[in-house]
Amino acid sequence: MPAFVVPHSTFPEGYHCNPKEPLPFIQLAAQKSHFALYHMGLYAQPELLAWFQEECKKRMPVKLDMGKACLRFKKEAHIPFELLSELAQKMSIEEWIALYEGSVKDSRKRSKA
């Protein structure tokens, strides 16, 4: 699966589940029954998710098939390429790192309580 990650040179801490791996950001996958795009910002930032869901209603000919960060498209004709381009530009790497660090710290505080 091709992935756009935050390299260790930019974020040395790496991914909290396995610090040897770089921090994931956007991934692409071709599954047997669909094409998938994973955008971690959709899972972590409710405002971005709300924007994307509203835009999908306006621009997609079919209902959005989505998991927490996974967008699934069964037919190439249904992929909103322009919208995905806009989505990719909505969050910078710096914004993703800050959001990620905040969410990891928050989850560690909750697990200690």
Features:
alpha+beta; Aspartate Aminotransferase, domain 1; 5-stranded antiparallel beta sheet; 5 strands; 42% helix
Task: Provide a concise account of the structure shown.
This protein has four helices and five strands, in the order E-E-E-H-H-E-E-H-H. The protein has 113 residues and is of the alpha+beta class.
Structural class: alpha+beta
Here the CATH topology equals Aspartate Aminotransferase, domain 1
- Quaternary form: single chain
Beta fraction of the residues?
A: 15-25%
Low-pLDDT sequence parts: none
- So what's the overall shape? globular
Q: What is the level-2 CATH architecture name?
A: Alpha-Beta Complex
Mean pLDDT: 92
* CATH C-level name: Alpha Beta
Number of strands: 5
Helix content: 40-55%
Order of strands in the sheet with most strands: 1-2-3-5-4
How many distinct helices?
Answer: 4
Query: From the alpha-carbon coordinates, what is the Rg to the nearest angstrom?
Result: 15 Å
* Count of spatially separate domains: 1
Overview of this protein structure:
By secondary structure, the protein is α+β, with helices and mostly antiparallel strands. The protein has a single domain, classed as Aspartate Aminotransferase, domain 1, CATH 3.90.1150. Helices cover 42% and strands 20% of the residues. The chain has a five-stranded antiparallel β-sheet with strand order 1-2-3-5-4.
